Amino acid sequence: MTKIALYQSRTGIDPAANGDALVAAIQEASAGGAQMLFTPEMSGLLDRQVERAALNAREEADDLVLQRCREAAKEHGIWVHLGSLAIRGGGEKLVNRAFVIDKGGSIRSRYDKIHLFDVDLPTGESWRESNTYRAGERAVVVRETPVGVLGLSICYDLRFPALFAELSESGAQVIAVPAAFTVPTGRAHWEVLLRARAIEAGLFIVAAAQCGEHEDGRATYGHSMVVDPWGSVALDMGEGVGIGFAEIDLTKIEDVRGRVPALSHRKPIASSIAP
Questions:
Q1: Phi and psi torsions of 44, nearest 5°
Q2: Which CATH number fits domain 2-264: 3.30.565.10, 3.60.110.10, 3.20.20.190, 3.40.190.170?
Q3: What is the spatial distance between Cα 250 and Cα 26, in angstroms, rounded to a whole number?
Q4: Average pLDDT by consecutive 10-residue portion of the chain (275 residues)?
Q5: Helices marked H in the chain — which ranges?
Q6: Which region, left, alpha or beta, applies to residue 155 given φ > 0 means left and ψ of -120 to 50 means alpha?
Q7: Catalytic sites, residue numbers
Q8: DSSP character for 179?
């Protein structure tokens, strides 16, 4: 049994203030007995004003939020899944990059968001992540973490089950889904998609999310969740900022997969559609 923590944040446009909040969350999670903390997508900067956000983005080696989180992880002896940061990754566009940091402060793995959110919503909201960000190209699993084999995804990736199938077939026991879901899509789809992904693969989903009204004018849904392999919601943090705790019992995976062995029954499907 492994105790984890989730940080549900209301990230703003000032990286220094966001870094302060993350360091405090790391300290609180460690003090509460968690072995690993999960934070949301865009934990270091959430700003829809492209020019201002670009001015605040840094190369990985120069990103002060990342540096402070690494130092805090080492100081407090806790692993941190930093849901994502806006990082200059070479070229004109940024990357939406997740980091797994061990309790010694070392970066164990990185993941760049593959599926970018380019949509026009009925509310009038329009999002074009591809205007600012370069998409990632590979699925990532991290072995030997406090929660076993950890698969990485970010927000909109949740809508693409093939990625989750790839992660589970690569041995993932837990998949992280850090997010900044909009309120309309969150209300309609957040919980059902998280539960579906957990049920399909018979594993844990840990989804730390942004919440509330942000400085840049957007509103995010919150409801950070932990879903077990049976699809039961073990934690739902509602709409407030703060730290939530949950237990990960990896023995549940074997039990559920024994009862519903869908993962072992997956087969490649040949197309019969005529050209």
A1: -95, -20
A2: 3.60.110.10
A3: 23
A4: 98 96 98 98 91 88 97 98 92 91 98 84 64 89 98 97 96 98 95 98 97 95 98 97 98 93 77 61
A5: 15-31, 50-56, 64-76, 161-169, 183-185, 191-201, 251-259, 262-265
A6: left
A7: 41, 113, 155
A8: B
